[in-house]
Amino acid sequence: MRYVPFGGTGIVVSALGFGCGPMGSRFGVRESRRALDAAFDDGITTFDTARSYGYGDAEGILGRFLEGKRDRVIVSTKFGIRASPSTPVKRFAKAVARQVFKVIPGARKLATPAVRSQMGAQFSSHGFSVAEMTSSVERSLAELRTDYIDVLFLHSCAPNVALDDELFAALDELVRKGKVRCIGVASSAAAIAEMLRVRPQQVRALQFLQNLSAQADARTIAALPGAAGSGRMAHQPFGGPEGVARLREALEPMRIDSRLSTPLREKLASADPRLLADLALNSVVRNTGVDVAVCAMYTVDHIRTNAGVVRESRFSDAEIGEVQAYFAGAMSDS
Asked: Of all helices (H) and strands (E), which one includes residue 224?
């Protein structure tokens, strides 16, 4: 695995991060623990979670995994979106849903508006008061079974949260006490821009969406004053099923596009099934200023593939740059 400085925070991260979003919801405890162990064994040391992930259960699953290895991993979590308390009925419903999604992978898209509304009701957002932040952090520390959080992100906050002096004074106090090493924001480009404008000395980490099909926000963020010294973490590096499909469809025309270098076109002609992962992940963590690409990986083969291509890519930086430019042009023409 490649390990890199997380901006100027003093934290060292693995270039591939493990996204804990599906733990406790799409994947149960046993499957999640198997994936966490496989990721750690393959050198992944960065684990990204949130108070709301897994309907509130993800941090607890991660916390049990961390026992005996906390000093060897980097943990980021978030506050601002709260999951409603778990109940026996909700736990049973989640277990049933997991089985349905295994049998019918597209079942999530078939959910009725009423079902989706009920799922959305499991969360409440805008929990950015000092009291709610303090409660969320204390709960995170307890669930994670640790006495400190490496990176604490404000989760999907609005730009005006940057103006809350009381909140940031309380966050600074957490850092002073050693409960949090670094404060960050995981939100829209607009919220990140406002945070860097108002709180450049306090907000040291940024998390945002980035993949080959969505490069604009990342370029905007990279150009912002203060961004250069911040640790940067990108989520959804594959762009979901739609992003993977778009990348797959683009391969054939790229293989014959004379504007691309011959060595790159020859590499794109490979039948290696790891090719897509190599392109997707390395296009996020190279030539971009992004330190960590965070994705959900819940099979051993998926983890090994992703870790392998981040550790050793077939593409040079110049070739990755060609791919990034190609997609940037394709997106602007569409």
From this structure: none
DSSP class of residue 86 equals P
Q: For position 82, what pLDDT does the model report? A: 79
Give the pLDDT score at 325: 95
Give CA–CA dist 274/44, Å, rounded: 18
What is the overall mean pLDDT for the chain? Answer: 89
> Tell me, what's the pLDDT at 118?
40
Residue 126: pLDDT band with limits 50, 70, 90: low
Interatomic CA distance for residues 320 and 267, integer angstroms: 11
What is the mean pLDDT of the segment spanning 186-214?
96
pLDDT for res 120: 40
Answer whether 30's CB lies under 8 Å from 22's CB. Answer: no
In the chain, the domains with their CATH numbers are 3-84+122-238+290-314 (3.20.20.100)
10 Å Cβ neighbour count for 20?
Answer: 27
Q: What is the CA radius of gyration of the chain?
A: 20
Cβ of 302: how many Cβ atoms within 10 Å? Answer: 16
Contact 73, 66 (CB under 8 A): yes
Q: How many CB atoms lie within 10 A of CB 196?
A: 20
The span from the CA of 71 to the CA of 295, in Å, is: 22
CA 206 distance to own-chain centroid: 11
| pLDDT higher than 90, residue 334 | no
Maximal CA-CA distance, the chain: 60
Phi/psi for 322 (5° steps) reads: -60, -45
| The amino acid at 38 | A
Whole-number Å distance between alpha carbons of 153 and 182: 9
Q: Which residues contact 316 (CB under 8 A, 6 or more apart)?
A: none
